[in-house]
Amino acid sequence: MAVIDQHRTWLKVEERLATETDPVLRRNLGLLVTHMKAEAVFDLPLLMSTVSETAVYKTFVQDAATWPRGKAAVQEFYEGFAASGARKLCMDLDRLVVDRDCILTEGTMRMAWPGSTLQAMNIVVDDPDADYLYETRMAILWPIAEDGLFNGEDTYVGEDGFAGIADRKLNPDDIVLYEPAGASH
Predict the structure, then answer these.
(1) How are beta strands 88-98 and 51-59 bridged, if at all?
(2) Was domain 4-176 assigned CATH 3.40.30.10?
(3) Three-class SS state of 98
(4) Cβ distance 90 to 5 under 8 Å?
(5) Which of 42, 73, 173, 181 sits a CA distance of 20 to 30 A from 65?
């Protein structure tokens, strides 16, 4: 089994969506699936179509002054993230709670960070052309604004996923990427 399989990110969400009957909860779950799949292939217009104008992305291991505030800042955040090359990720969910105003996802976040990016972060790796495994326990609250879009992400992490990352080199077959139907190769 692959270490990172992007399809696992939305598997539990799609399973819940298949059985959910409440129209508001279905809308919220559908929004999350759209967001997750757009993030997997970095379809920025589709990704940003799920984000409210007033969104704030809170990561509680960072200073609140650095949190992206507003849709334009969130877009810059995603553009910077894509530029890092660390877009191969999987949030392996084991908990999903859906409310009318918020969704909670919790599980193990795994990301393939390029060796060259890690080197730029002053992390010594033996192969700048390889990917290395970032892994941490993560919970994300997805508040939903009155416009029905995500008003941010409130992210909590368990441990430092970068600790020991240089010892977790990935092989290419450790990663299974999502490719939407009809996508060109």
Answers:
(1) unpaired
(2) no
(3) strand
(4) yes
(5) 42
